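Q: what sequence does this backbone want?
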């Protein structure tokens, strides 16, 4: 059985800018929409951008992770390593500003992962990552047999 699609809804203050970012930059197919929201296919998952006033946006907080201040909240996709590297090339070619530059965290550990953070035009933060050992996506961080947090 395949992974069921995940649904996430995020606030945006400009649907045209959301379309340019998600469909244009990230290549997400557009689904249903109306004057106040639009669906996108984000790697097989349903992302819905809901139009809200700019003053309703909440700035992200941050949490320290492996030496970086990771914005919270954020959402994203776990890609395979080659797909992640291709996305990095695509984003660099488009001169996208990274909130956290592409890099590898937890190097040499079971949870070793490549990760990057970007923001959409409304300030919603996305993380794209790839695990060196994908089977460890939900592994515990307790030192037992390949058990390390990712």
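A:
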């Amino acid at each position: 059985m395949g992974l069921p699609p995940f649904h996430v809804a995020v606030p945006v203050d400009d649907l045209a800018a959301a379309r340019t970012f998600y469909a244009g930059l990230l290549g997400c197919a557009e689904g249903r929409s109306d004057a106040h929201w639009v669906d996108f296919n984000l790697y097989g998952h349903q992302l819905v951008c809901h139009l809200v006033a700019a003053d309703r946006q909440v700035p992200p907080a941050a949490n320290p992770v492996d030496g970086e201040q990771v914005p919270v909240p954020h959402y994203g996709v776990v890609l395979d390593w080659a797909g992640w590297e291709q996305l990095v090339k695509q984003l660099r070619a488009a001169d996208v500003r990274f909130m956290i530059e592409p890099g590898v965290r937890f190097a040499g550990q079971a949870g070793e992962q490549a990760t990057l953070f970007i923001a959409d035009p409304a300030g919603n933060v996305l993380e794209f990552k790839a695990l060196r050992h994908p089977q460890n996506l939900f592994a515990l961080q307790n030192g037992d047999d390949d058990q390390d947090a990712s």
